Amino acid sequence: MDLSKDPEQIRGLFSCIAPVYDQMNRLFSWGLDGSWRRRVVDLLELAGHEEVLDICCGTGELTFALAKRLNKGGSVVGIDFTREMLVRAKEKARRNNYQKICSFRLADALNLPFANGSFDVVTNAFGVRNLSDPKTGLQEMYRVLRPKGKFACLELSQPENRWFLGLYRRYFAGLLPLIGYVILKQRGPYDYLPASVWNFQNKAGFSALIGQCGFQNVQVHSLWGGTVAIFLAGKPGSG
């Protein structure tokens, strides 16, 4: 499996799965992915007036979970570099009347089109692992975050329990690609997913990388036996 993380290959992969992305997430997470996103929002403890940036927003599921906690003074911008994902995000925003709070832009997480210190909160769900350069992505998120701003990242991970890890590997690397092939009629997208998790940093390594990019008070919240983790951190500020 090619894990070079070539941007064009990653864009092509997500363009391919965009029509079934939400359904596959529900299926493979046993319907829990929505609760994971809500947990991210809970941990952020939003006041309601924040300006939020959701990186690699996909079809907007975390973007909308954030929007539900914002009032008229708040807003959330979702960015993704896959046009097909954004088409679906914008349609869901229109259908659910989120246009006044949510907006979406085609943009690259490694070169964000925003000035320094533009947002109170920066979030990401299942995206950093797919970046060709995760450190540059984190540095960009830090750059556009205001002093004392909050950062949250929801990401797939590997469980620490050895027995559960073996069981998880059999499901994630065996059954998941097979189901993906049956639905998409092609190999690749759901072979890439488990391979990308096995080759990504563990929780301690990713936490250290977050800290290297300037963030402080890095916290890790493990979910579902450690197969999913929420990373929280803050940007230091004066006053």
Task: Please give a quick description of this structure.
The protein is α/β, with parallel strands linked by helices. It has nine helices and seven strands. A seven-stranded mixed beta sheet has the order 3-2-1-4-5-7-6, sandwiched between helices.
Write the layout of secondary structure elements.
Blueprint: H1 7-17, H2 21-28, H3 33-44, E1 51-55, H4 61-67, E2 75-80, H5 83-95, E3 102-106, E4 119-125, H6 134-144, E5 145-156, H7 162-184, H8 189-198, H9 203-212, E6 216-223, E7 228-234
Any overview of this molecule?
The chain is globular and about 50 Å long. It starts with 6 loop residues before the first helix and ends in a 5-residue tail after the last strand. Helix content is 44%, strand content 21%. It is of the alpha/beta class. It has a seven-stranded mixed sheet, with helices on both faces. It has a single domain, classed as Vaccinia Virus protein VP39 (Rossmann fold), CATH 3.40.50. The model has no long low-confidence stretch (mean pLDDT 89). The protein has nine helices and seven strands.
